[in-house]
Amino acid sequence: MTLFEQLGGEAAVTAVTTQFYANIQADATVSNFFNGINMADQTNKTASFLCAALGGPKAWGGRNLKEVHANMGVTNAQFTTVIGHLRSALTSAGVAADLIDQTVAVAETVRGDVVTA
Length: 117
Known about the structure:
By secondary structure, the chain is mainly alpha-helical. The chain is built from 7 helices and no strands. Helix 2 crosses helix 3 and helix 5 (76-92) packs antiparallel against helix 6 (97-108). The chain is globular. One of its GO terms (biological process) is oxygen transport. Keywords: Heme, Iron, Metal-binding, Oxygen transport, Transport. Belongs to the truncated hemoglobin family. Group I subfamily.
């Protein structure tokens, strides 16, 4: 069973992604990256990416993360903060600790593409 399936599939990943962005928007240290962004679209894109990355049935067809984040100036500390918001969203959804750790490990694989400062 894939991590995507263990987490509950697309609906569960989308719900976690929605909470993830609510957490980010409440945090002044990282919310500025999303000023002027349509958050419904952003949530859908991120949920689609996560579904694919977690072993879901659909391949990621969106933009390359390195290109998207190239000029954003995201620091390691900010990425770590965002990972904390993901962990918190997963915890709030009642996801088991081992699945949270596995999901965070998958998210960590893109640190090098997202951190540009």
